[in-house]
Amino acid sequence: MADTTFGPKGWTPERLGDQSGKTYIITGANAGAGFQAARILLKKNAKVVMLNRSAKKSEAAIVDLKQEFGAKADVSFIRMDLSVLDSVREAAEEVLRTVPRVDALINNAAIAQVPTRKLTVDGFESQLGTNHLGHFLLNGLLFDRIAQSKGRIVVVASLGYNMGLKTIKFADMNWDKGYGANTAYSQSKLAQMMFAYELQDRLAAAGRKDVEVFVCHPGSSATSLITTSGSRTMRFIWWLMTKTPMVQTAEQGSYPEVMCATEEALTEQRALYGPTGRMEAVGPVGRGTLNAHAHDKAVMSRLWEESEQAVGFAWEL
To answer: Does position 217 have pLDDT exceeding 70, yes or no?
Structure first.
């Protein structure tokens, strides 16, 4: 049954009040859903800090945003390559030095469907290293700043978590054997979700209520995700799909992450938010289906420990 909390049209930015004085950090915000999320928040007078890999694309995005909202639009970027842990550390230091409050950290950036197995400079399979481990470290480094603002952590996941192995391949997380673009991507997005749900458990165990953690997904949205890193075949299939009703706009794809970052009526954290229409890929935004393998406690706990060791950072809650 579709979630009707926000009415038949689901959550839309019309619910969003004035965001003056609030600051949102978005990873991967120079295109796609991240860029659209920045637009929505800037329209409501928020401050947006983008953490992006490409300086050139970030500068172009800022020009576009200031043309739309005026020269006083409070938008900036800090260069960060999620696939490089040292880059994540440097970006986090810059955030802590220049951004006094963080009302929400939106973990939006991702790579997908990398056709052949690649390793990051730190030695991790590229999709796991970028989508999960880079964000895991970033959130740990910025956690105290988020807590000071009584802010939120938003993890942008994917329905891909329901594909592949539906668990973490601890014996071979880097896919030395049997690499597949889809299975590796699915594991990386499942890992992101498990990070969020395990963090929820650890915050509850520590009696902390100063940070809320939400998980969402954009559904099938016309973003540059697959066209950036997917194979030629995947890019062609995706291009065909964008011509059908099964794919919505990037702006619509941004609604779940903006909702999870801002909506005060959102109270259930152990959930997955996103489109609630056909196959939960498109349609009104609300609470969708969360399958149990995404919060298997034994797997979540082990993944957390493995991730701390991998990135060389121990969370303190």
So the answer is: yes
